[in-house]
Amino acid sequence: MATVDDKKIIFSMVGVSKIIPQNRKQILKDIYLSFFYGAKIGIIGLNGAGKSTLMKIIAGIEQPTQGEVVWSPGYSVGYLPQDPPLDESKTVKENVMEGVQQAYDALKEYEEINEKFGLEEYYGDPDKMDKLMQRQSEVQDIIDATDAWNMDSKLDR
Question: Which CATH class is domain 5-71?
Answer without folding.
Answer: alpha beta
